[in-house]
Each structure stands twice: as structure tokens, then as C-alpha cells.
Q: What sequence folds into this?
């Protein structure tokens, strides 16, 4: 009886494990598109638009223990936003890559990786300037320098993703409009 019980438990564990692993990695084309392309909307205001908007509002982060947004420094607020992008990137990276979705996933990972890296290099020092109450001219110069060094690359990566996403949408008859 114990052998049958152990065998049954083992069998169920294998079945459940395989169901979980396949359900997490073999996504429909629609879901793949949603994760890889639609999440890029989070980056549509990359650069001075996003930075200026965030610097005009009170800095906040989500406090898990209180289950609400709480006041913070600008640096912590920007770090919080970057960590959310890192979570989105991780979700993209978890999708099983195949010949059908490879180009879409690569373009999405390229865009997110670049944006996260540049936000860490550029947004955080600008936030630090704001926290330290640097002169507005100094902050605006740092923002302009950031845009000058990143805008062409981010635009190219975003456009590439949108072009690849359009081809993916067309191939799979997904009801979506791509704005480039």
C-alpha cells in the first residue's frame, strides 16, 4: 500500500510540475505579444518627459507592509520605478524563445535592458541632484545631457520593437494597432 501511495504521489507531483512549467512557458501568441510588446508602453515617456514629470511630483514608493504609497526621496522613488521595469524584463526573459517569437523577444529584451541601464546611469544621479536641492539649471542641464546621449538609441530600439511587433501581430492575426 505504501508503494502505491508513494508512486501515486510521485506521479501527481510530476504531472503537476509539468503542467505548471508548460503553462508558464508556452504562451499564446497574444499573451507573448502582450508581455513583450505592450509592456514597452512603460518606456514611451523615457527621458526628459518622464524625469521632469517625476521631479514635479512628490517622490513616493510602495510600502509592502502598509500596502500603500509612502513619501520617499527622489532617488528611492526612481529606484522603485526601475525595479518595476526589472520585474517586467524578468517576465519577458521567462518566455520560452522559439523561432516564432525570437525576434520579438530579443527586441523587447534589448529595449528594456537598455532603458534600465540608462535609467540607473542617468535618472538616479539626476534624482540625487534634486534630493540635494541642486540649482534648477544644473538639474535641467543634466536632463538635457541625458536626452542627448540616449534619445537616438532608445528611439531606434523602440521603433525596432514596434516594427517586429507589427509583423508578429500580422502573422498571428492579433487584434492590435501598433503606433510607431
A:
Amino acid at each position: 500500500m505504501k508503494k502505491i501511495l508513494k508512486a501515486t504521489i510521485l506521479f501527481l507531483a510530476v504531472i503537476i510540475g509539468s503542467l505548471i512549467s508548460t503553462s508558464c512557458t508556452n504562451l499564446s501568441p497574444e499573451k507573448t505579444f502582450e508581455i513583450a510588446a505592450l509592456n514597452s508602453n512603460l518606456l514611451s515617456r523615457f527621458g526628459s518627459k518622464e524625469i521632469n514629470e517625476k521631479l514635479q511630483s512628490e517622490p513616493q514608493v510602495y510600502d509592502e507592509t502598509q500596502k500603500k504609497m509612502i513619501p520617499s526621496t527622489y532617488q528611492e522613488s526612481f529606484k522603485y520605478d526601475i525595479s518595476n521595469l526589472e520585474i517586467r524584463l524578468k517576465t519577458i526573459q521567462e518566455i520560452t524563445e522559439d523561432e516564432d517569437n525570437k525576434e520579438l523577444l530579443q527586441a523587447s529584451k534589448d529595449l528594456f535592458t537598455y532603458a534600465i541601464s540608462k535609467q540607473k546611469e542617468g535618472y538616479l544621479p539626476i534624482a540625487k541632484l534634486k534630493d540635494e536641492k541642486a540649482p534648477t539649471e544644473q538639474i535641467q542641464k543634466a536632463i538635457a545631457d541625458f536626452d542627448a546621449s540616449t534619445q537616438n538609441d532608445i528611439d531606434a530600439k523602440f521603433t525596432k520593437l514596434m516594427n517586429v511587433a507589427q509583423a508578429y501581430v500580422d502573422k498571428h492575426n492579433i487584434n492590435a494597432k501598433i503606433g510607431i
Remarks:
- Strands lie at 60-63, 68-71.
- Confidence is low (pLDDT under 50) at residues 1-24.
- Residues 25 and 94 are 7 Å apart (CA to CA).
- DSSP finds six helices and two strands in the chain.
